Amino acid sequence: MLISITLTLDLLMAFKLRSNLFNFFFSHTGGEKIGEYPDPPPNPSSSDVQSPFTEVFSLEGHRNTIRYICLVRDMLVSCGDDGVLTLWDTETCKRICSTETHHLGVSFLYQPAYWHTNSNDSFLLTASPQVISLWQVAPDRIEHLQDFTGHSGSVRSLCIIEQGADGVLCAGGTNINIWERNGHQLKEVSRPLESSYLHHMLVLNSPGMCRLICASSHPFIEAYSLEKLQLDNILPPPEWEMYKAKHLRENVTQLVEVSKTVFATGSDDGSVILWSLDLLPIIVFNYLRDYCIESHEVISIAVEGRANTERKLISRSFPYTVLCMVVLQQRYVITGVGRAIKVYDTMVTKEEPILSVRPAHKSNVTCLALISEDTVLVSGAEDGSVRIWVGSEKNTAPPSLTSVRPLVQCLTSNHYLLLIGEILLHSQQVNGICDLCPLGFASCADNQIYIYKDTGYVENTEYTAIRKILSKSRHPQIRTFFSHLSKPEMT
Q1: Residue 163 forms part of a structural domain
Q2: Weakest mean pLDDT among 54-63, 75-84, 295-304
Q3: Which has the least CB within 10 A, 239, 332, 422, 476?
Q4: What gap in Å lies between CA 373 and CA 28, rounded to an integer?
């Protein structure tokens, strides 16, 4: 079902930052005092940048919460708790097809780029507590190719180890399982911490060293040495290592690759740590020296007639949890820490962020995405809000979006993140944001997907289509006029 929603600027788009919008108390990192945030730089009223994403389309069809969206061959793929894999046309915003995958829902979605042998092949891997499935995505259908079975427990992460022509599939959950591409299970590696599950995995390859880095629901980093993998797919037991640094006070929540020899982790306590391939911490960002954990005691008394006992249960919440991380040009780590967005430069030893918006949302930031060729940053939060940011020089603002420079050129102390738009359509936590450049971007929450189109791109596309039709008119004058008419410049 397609619902086209026309948004009025005064109701759904916030184009200006009020000087007192973000003025309240929040804890700072070590060395800083706890107090009010300084007001963000005011926007010049005469030259505010306006968000170009003013055409919004609703994609409906899922019956339960959507967890994942991704772009495959200019088409959008979505899946979630209803176990349905759906393919959408991003231009028309219509559903192409839907396929039932797993009745228990999809616990992980992965694009195995290493398996894309040619431009016509696009593959997806979906995981559930029972099976991992490989799918081929075509312009008009999603075709099931094969299943990978034999793992125990729910699969929370997938990756491809580049070995030989096809590589091998690695799945992480309570244990680690390895398959050939044809579905033959090669090995199951038992983990010492079987009470936990692996929720992030990545493979780092550098000359003389290849490691599988894993993050679990414990304050540990697990690393598996893969140097001895043989090209005939005979896998010896990988060397297992576990490292717990003094900086890892709480569970690791995020794991991202910065380069082939460096990766970064984010934790429940808000710390962002940069690691080398030999598992040594390079630098610790946002290390809260006196961080406070909000604890709540739940006391229950035994029923009358039994021993008068008392039981105390402590539940902890972390206001500065790192819930999302993206890397820009193998150097800058953009993080969502609690309600803030912070940008760290991995090439300097300074622990403070080079850019920070505190707070960036009224609730925790749950997802981040770089769109429009890394010129725009989009963030989503627990309250369902989606905000659009660009880099701007302090005390000035570019006159239009076309003059906005790539974010990598704006990551200095003389710049800040300028809020150019806010969209309040989702009613629950935003689970994913997907770049649809040059069309725009998409977001998902609850059972709803919204596509936000760049008005300039849409107008240019529509104009081109009309010009193409009229250039084939039977009337010579109309045909000649529109055949020689140049395209308008996109604004």
Answers
A1: no
A2: 295-304
A3: 476
A4: 32
Residue type, 419: L
Instruction: Give the contacts of 394 (CB within 8 A, at least 6 positions apart).
Output: 41, 414, 415, 416
Contact 271, 288 (CB under 8 A): yes
Tally of domains in the chain? 1
**Per DSSP, which regions of 39-140 are E strands?**
55-59, 66-72, 75-80, 84-89, 94-100, 108-110, 123-127, 132-138
Cβ neighbours of 265 (radius 10 Å): 24
305: left (phi over 0), alpha (psi -120 to 50) or beta: left
DSSP 403: G
Residue range 400-415, pLDDT digits in tens: 666 677 888 888 767 8
**Number of CB atoms found within 10 A of residue 454's CB:** 25
Q: Which amino acid is at 14?
A: A
Q: Tell me which residue range forms the domain holding 342.
A: 2-149+245-453
Position 488: which residue type? P
**Rounded distance between C-alpha atoms, residue 447 and residue 428, angstroms:** 10
Element housing 12 (H / E): helix 9-12
The region, left, alpha or beta by phi > 0 then psi within -120 to 50, assigned to residue 373 is left
Alpha-carbon distance of 264 to 170, in angstroms, equals 21
Q: How does 48-67 read in b/e, with b if 16+ C-beta sit within 10 Å?
A: bbebbbbbbbebebbeebbb
Q: Model pTM greater than 0.90?
A: no
Tens digit of each residue's pLDDT (9 = 90 or more) over 131-158: 899 999 998 899 999 999 888 778 889 9
pLDDT of residue 180: 86
Residue 179 near residue 186 (C-beta atoms within 8 A): yes
Q: Which residues, listed in sequence order, are joined to residue 100 by a DSSP beta bridge?
A: 84
Q: In a 3-state reduction of DSSP, which class is residue 11?
A: helix
Residue 116's pLDDT is: 61
Q: Which residues on adjacent β-strands are paired with residue 423?
A: 386
Say if 212 falls within a structural domain: no
CATH number at 112 reads 2.130.10.10
Which residue do the tokens 């490292």 mark? 243
**DSSP letter assigned to residue 120:** T
Q: Does 236 map to a domain?
A: no
Q: Do 469 and 479 touch, CB atoms closer than 8 A?
A: no
The arithmetic mean of pLDDT across residues 244-272, rounded, is 86
Q: With contact defined as beta carbons under 8 Å apart, do 216 and 197 qualify?
A: yes
pLDDT of residue 96: 95
For the cut 70, the answer to whether the pLDDT of residue 186 exceeds it is yes
pLDDT range class, residue 417, cuts 50, 70, 90: confident
- Is residue 435, in this structure, part of any structural domain at all? yes
Which segments of 357-470 does DSSP mark as H helices, in order?
455-470
